[in-house]
């Protein structure tokens, strides 16, 4: 179970980090609601 969950968690955290960073940039650039 650990072998299956670990890569998924790694991918999920990476995706979440990228999504959060792009949302932050979008918030600063386009003055959207944070």
Automatic annotation (TrEMBL):
<protein>
    <submittedName>
        <fullName>Uncharacterized protein</fullName>
    </submittedName>
</protein>
């Amino acid at each position: 179970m650990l072998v299956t969950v670990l890569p998924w968690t790694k991918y999920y955290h990476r995706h979440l980090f990228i999504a959060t960073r792009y949302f932050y940039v979008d918030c600063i650039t386009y003055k959207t609601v944070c």
